Amino acid sequence: MDKLLIAGGIPLSGEVAISGAKNAALPLLCAALLTKEPVTFTNVPHLNDIGTMLKLLAQMGVRVTREAEKVPAGTHSAGAGDTVTLDAAGLNNAVAPYEMVKTMRASILVLGPLVARAGEARVSLPGGCAIGARPVDQHIKGLTAMGAEIAVEHGYVHARAARLKGARLFTDMVTVTGTENLMMAACLAQGETVIENAAREPEVVDLANCLVAMGARISGAGGDVIRIQGVDALHGATHRIMPDRIETGTYLCAAAATGGEVRLTGASATSLDAVIDKLMDTGCEIIAERDAIRLRAPPRLTAVSIRTAPYPAFPTDMQAQFMAINAVAEGTAVMRETIFENRFMHAVELIRLGADIKIDGNTAFVTGRPKLDGATVMATDLRASASLVIAGLVAQGETLIERIYHLDRGYEGLEHKLAALGADIRRVK
Ligand code: EPZ
Fold first, then answer.
1. What pLDDT, on the 0 to 100 scale, is given for residue 68?
2. Which residue, 92, 160, 170, 384, has fewest beta-carbon neighbours within 10 Å?
């Protein structure tokens, strides 16, 4: 099992490129199931989750071709995405097996496209993960409302529909992949589908833009009501994956916590307003360029309280990283996690590094300390791991982070990018 060894105390400085967004790429790859024609994606990040999704699609009969984009000589490979072409003409196996789905919950995103394109699907229930139960009842409720016959048995969702019918859907809570699954299914349904209480995340908009390029008729994506007029078939398209706003936010937090100054290229500030607002509240100076973001940290950060909520509010995927910032900031922060029921696993590991954190239900009270001390800590989930990396970059002495396969799922070339920013970090066996 790989580990990351970090010698902390070095302010980050310099420039790195932001990769394509994991949470945009995952639904987009599934959208290729909706057509018999090839769909090409550029700026695809080189991540384990992407590899898992491509394997899942290939075992369904989708032809996958992937080539690394030529990186100009001298620039480091991380950040130059791959070009992936998917051809689902030969789709012949509408099954997402347990052994693949259990490693990546986002596999549930094949459900809607398979029912819409093939008229049936057998998808393993994703099961929970470290941060929560992660049910998919809203995905099932929506497809049922569109006329699919769905049985959940032996740990699989069996869905069947000769042709889905447009319907008025209302999700009980805002669900990102729920919105994405239903929007994809509705593209080939008979008639109009309206999704109320839809997720407004930028990744939903990126997916809608690609579906429209493929011939879908969608309006309202980015708002909380999305209208889809079903069509008989979609055609191929080429689509560039949007920049990863959570990767961007993570590097901004690392620069802030270490008192550094960085420039992130290929980053878009427009999808990060809530995060940038909070970073400015900590005392950071942030300059948004056309497709880059610059941050300069103050000598000592000021603690900021946050409350996670669906976009455009503060994203739950940035909560752990801000807990690392608050662990060394001046003052006490109150951090409320309203999306997932168990997303404070990083707190106990931060406490091992000397942080002063008290957890009470879904609220964490963090009192900043002047410094943290390096120690051995264990990653539990993707964003918790990022939080431990940030804390390790700040802590005095060495920090060894175990189980970093969590990191490899969602951060492309993390140690290379951080080393390019001056960090003393390396992967050890
Ligand atoms: C997406 O997960 C992201 N994953 C998550 O990012 C992100 O944390 C989450 O949205 C919230 O923004 C991808 O996009 C691949 P939800 P998703 O459905 O869609 C409950 C990361 O680190 N719910 O919006 O699974 C659910 O339990 C990952 O990159 C139901 O109860 O999240 C949660 O409490 C982690 N029933 C809340 O809604 C359902 O049918 C929001 O979940 C669906 C969701």
1. 81
2. 92
